Amino acid sequence: MTKIAVIGLPSSGKSSLSQALQNLADQGKKKMQFVEVHNPDELHGHAFDVVLQLVDSTRLEESLLLTPHIIDEQEKIVIAIGRYDLLLATDHSLDIPKLQQLIGVPTCRLSVRKNYGLDECLAILSEVAAKPVSTAHPIYHLRDQGDEDTYIAYVHGVLTQTLTHAKDDAYQTRLEKIDKVLTNPWLGFPIMMAVLYFVFWCTFTLGAYPQDWIAAGIDWLCNIAHDHMVDGWLSGLLIDGVLQGVGAVLAFLPNIIILFFFISLMEDSGYMAREAYIMDAVMHRIGLHGRSFIPMLMGFGCNVPAIMAAKDIQNPKDRVLTMLMVPFMSCSARLPVYMLFVDTFFPRHKALVMISLYAIGVCLSVLFALLMKHTRWFRQEADDTVNELPEFKLPKLRIAAAHIWEKVADYLQKICTVIIWASIIIWALEYFPSQDINDLENSYLAAIGKAISPVLAPLGFDWKMSVCLLTGLPAKEAIVSTLAILYGGDISAAGFTPLTAFSFLLFVLLYFPCVATIFTLRREAGRGWAWFMVVHSLVLAWFVSFVVYQIGSLLVP
Questions:
Q1: What is the DSSP letter of 292?
Q2: How far is 106 from 80, CA to CA, in rounded Å?
Q3: For 243-255, how does the pLDDT look when each residue is reduced to its tens digit (9 = 90+)?
């Protein structure tokens, strides 16, 4: 078995190259194993037969500076010039035979995207693996001098003789020029906020039409059921419980589709990773691992896989702290609650209020991390940065569609399980023991709500809002179905004010996302940290909502 290490700069595409070559070798029944390596130090002490260095044709000088360091660890090396078509697109050209002659290393060019050069690369790798080590190539003689300046001067001289520049001397593709703007320390953050504003604006504006159609369809079904069923507990369960409760959540499905369409485009294009790059400086200022922002980004989709993704962080303190920060991120389960209140009480500023909720979650997570870093459990210095950016590329609609279907399937599964059962239970607690849906004050639900309402009354919440927060424990979407059952599908006439609504949204944002998140954190970090998350999130949610409501009550008559 020929063992081949594949190495290259971050974002050079070595992962896709490794997979493509492995598949091709397996098809040809060649005994080759391709292993992705991130830096030359990982080559030390490993029995690799050959190292395949993937050189980014649009970052030639930076890529070739890695070559001498690879040779220091592994003497058999093959250079593959990748993405050569992108170099040609900038009106540059590279003399491959002369480059191979000057460096003295077998060299080929290939493109995984256009599927050429892979067979030639496999053939060269087999040939180099079978031959004895040769010290003929010029880079060997540089190792006696051994300083970085010598390497830089040598690589610069090689490219001076082999690289033909375009007339305007531009050494960037259009996408790379865009990339520099998107990751600019001064422009990157305002652009990110503008992109998020546009995404939320489209989510509300485009989603309003199908949302109205679904709501009208639910009303139509309720009217049919009412006309064809005898009044009683069964009709009440079906109409007021299942149809109203499930319909309230189902109405937000178009918004979910639109939002995750844009999120998928940002992930597939590589822009989401650039958001992490922009925020990396913030992460280091709070003493966190540079890669901690990636699980936090995933938390905007679902907190459960985000906590699991934090396992990849090697430092145990950073790993646990990142897991504790993830629940501050507004997961998709909270989205229907946000949309319902924002659409009802903030119709002129929908996108701004939505962005503020997401921003408040991020800011409070940063403050939380700063505080925890001063405790004996997490006191340390950060030791890494986010410097691996994937290639910035045009997103594919096929990948976006698959991503959307995954989220839609998960949303529908929740509706068919958790939401239906929560709606039935809420309706039953509302109906019994008086067996009169209009006699809420004497129902079991009222008794539960009134028992916990004194704790939440300083936040502006009545007993019905308190019950809604309680039903959100298994899944935050259940809050919407509970509101629909308790208020008959119209919360605008329920006595809410914009201040009360915003206080309620803050509580939903900050108290722990769902029971599944608690169990995941318990499994990954331990029972103590899971209970800590439950307690501190409830206390923080109460305190923030209290401050906002009480101060707002003084300022707003």
A1: G
A2: 9
A3: 988 888 888 889 8
